[in-house]
Amino acid sequence: MTIGRALASTLTAAAVTAGLLTGCSSTVGGEAVSPLYDPFRVGGLPAVDGPSGLRADAPDPVGVVLHTDGGDIDRLALLAVNDVADFWSQHYADALPGDFEPVERLVSYDSNDPSSPRVCGGRTYKLVNAFFCPPLDLMAWDRGVMVPVGQKFFGDMSVVALIAHEYGHAVQRMAGLLEEDTSPLVIEQQADCFAGAHQRWVVEGNSPRFTLDTGDGLNHVLAAALTIRDPLVPEIVAEMLDVAEHGNALDRISAFQLGFINGAQTCAAIDEAEVAQRRGDLPRNLEMSADGKVESVDVTLDESVLAALMDDLDTIFDLPHPPTLSLDPDDCGSPQPGAPVAYCPDDNTVGVDLPALQEFATPASEYRNLVLLQGDNTAISALTSRYVLAVQRERGVSLDTAEAALRTACLTGFAQQAMAERVPGRQLVLSAGDVDEAVAGLLVNGIAASNVTGATVPAGFTRIVAYRSGLLGDLELCYSRFG
């Protein structure tokens, strides 16, 4: 988030390990109306925690994996291949043209091993990846780093989703969806969408090998999607290095959600126009200064930054009685342990535990890029969510319901949409990476999608849907869609 010239800094991406997916907010009860925006449903399915991962009675894997070491990682990956093939054998004809042909050439390699085999004409030593090779109709995965680290941080189902994504590339070619000029962005977004369609099939209990719940299990799958986001670079650098755009974290999660909610037939319709519409006018690349340097990527949250945010929110919402900011813990204590922000409607005060909020914005060390984002906008979006409770108070709507939690996420997204515009007098401007930091917060702690009591809704999936509704919608949409 670019801070105005007087403050001369930016907010951008940083990292925190996926072990923090257990949030500090409780969940809330209540009633809801629309199945898609129901606080207690995920794409129309009940939002529940339960078992996720390999079934105890899963059948043995079928197929030959070249260069396998015969270990558990390759067994899991092969079971995932079998499962995705089962899904497509049942549903391909209903969604796509052509005939389904299972991918049978499978290769395992160890990116830590200098003698790791060449695959699809390239070296696999230090290639931390999984991929589909169209010329050879071959799928390969790294059993040394990519798959085991993903499994460690995000669970078995993140590995299954990874395989489902790569299988999606094979399906694209079977269906003739790709032209010579189809961009990598569209190619990757379609594959993310196909992975979402398969994961719903698992959630619905159709897989003989895996289970997935719509609460914590699905949260971990979405968290894994954050880790394969595009790196943040200036546009001119991306052009010079010929870096193919695949999508930021919100792009990839929203494509996955399209497939999960609407099925595989929706994925085939993804094109440049659809991606552009889904992205809106949000910033994509880092900015460069007049002297050719990339702008600073961090800012320390202090009283001046928080005051600037409150001033900007006053301008955006133009409330007759805007809330006041207090840094005194005794003025407006948090209703939830561990939450660094709170809103007290009785005296219309937004309370902040500044040291705790600064922890929310402090970068943590990365481990092979398999991390969740944490940065300044993880904290800024949480604080903004408490301000928009004051916006709802002015409107006279409930503040302590499940609908209020999602309405809060939506209005937070709306505020951040406004902050993406460079308006004279505004001090904070949304920049590349900031939205993904907010999305990470929605998965990790849910504060930006919590009501006045600090209670959130069960599924990170639904929290993100609500936030994106405001990010790409308008103020009234938040009230009509979420009660």
Automatic annotation (TrEMBL):
Highest taxon of the lineage: Bacteria
Pfam families: Zn_peptidase
InterPro entries: Uncharacterised_pept_Zn_put
SUPFAM superfamilies noted in UniProt: Metalloproteases ('zincins'), catalytic domain
Protein name: Neutral zinc metallopeptidase
Naturally occurring in which organism (per UniProt): [Mycobacterium] wendilense
